Amino acid sequence: MAEKSVSSLSEENVVKKVAELMETLDEIKKYNILEKYLKKFTIIVITSIAICIAVNLTISFFGLLNAYNELDRFFLNFPIVLIPSVGVLAGILFVRSKMKKVKTGEWKKELSKGFPSALKLLSEIDWDNSFDVVSSGRVGYVLYGLVKGAAYGFIFFFIIGFVLNLITYLTLHRTGALGYASFHFSFLSIIVYLRYDLSKRFNEIRAIDKLQCELRRLNDELRSAEL
Asked: What gap in Å lies between CA 56 and CA 48, rounded to an integer?
């Protein structure tokens, strides 16, 4: 009876799909870490951006670079972008360090025994809980992408501004000739980045949902066949 219920899937495919699901659930554990530490990640990023703005305003208000010519001021101002860059990098490394501590792959030894072990793992899954875990994990996964994207946009603003000003200085012998062009280019860049990043994340989430539903249906069929 059980063999008949899985006729549409070979034993090898069942083992493969169970492995995919277990790997996915391991990844979801990491997503939940993202949600748990998202606030700290956001604080790190916002603090670094605030420091960057404060330093820039302090330099402008007190005229600390007035003694230098226009080109020197331009190059001396650019290292300010390192502040939010370091903040974003520190935030990412902080989150990744927490994610690495998550225990994963504990199921691999059991699944290596083949099809019977795959069915055993399926029967032991708490499907309602796994759906709840996926739902909460996807929130952290998407929000993490949004915060990281916004931080990248802020950094892009400075980098693109530097490149544009360098080009205008070399061609027109002046800086600031393109006005707010760096803002528009950085805004466009972040839109493109977020569209790609969020599209990728949502596609991964949809694939997870599809895999869960498929294996839950298989598990239900197997249980029905055993009755």
From this structure: 12
Question: Which mean pLDDT values do the consecutive 10-residue runs of the chain (227 residues) have?
Answer: 50 84 81 81 88 90 85 78 84 87 88 87 79 74 80 79 78 66 76 84 79 73 62
Give the start-to-end residue ranges of the domains of the chain: 2-226
How far apart, in whole angstroms, are the C-alpha atoms of residue 85 and residue 154? Answer: 9
**Structural contact between residues 19 and 122, judged by C-beta atoms closer than 8 angstroms:** no
Q: What integer pLDDT is reported at residue 5 of this predicted model?
A: 46
pTM for this predicted structure: 0.65
124 membership: H or E segment, kind and range = helix 115-124
Nearest Cα residue to 197 out of 146, 163, 151, 160: 146
Instruction: With H, G, I as helix, E, B as strand and everything else as coil, classify residue 1.
Output: coil
Written as one string, the DSSP assignment of 177-215 is: TTTTHHHHHHHHHHHHHHHHHHHHHHHHHHHHHHHHHHH
Identify whether the C-beta of residue 110 lies closer than 8 Å to the C-beta of residue 117.
yes
Say what the pLDDT of residue 9 is: 60
Sign of the C-alpha dihedral, residues 170, 174, 175, 177?
A: negative
Q: Which pair of structure tokens corresponds to residue 3?
A: 């063999």
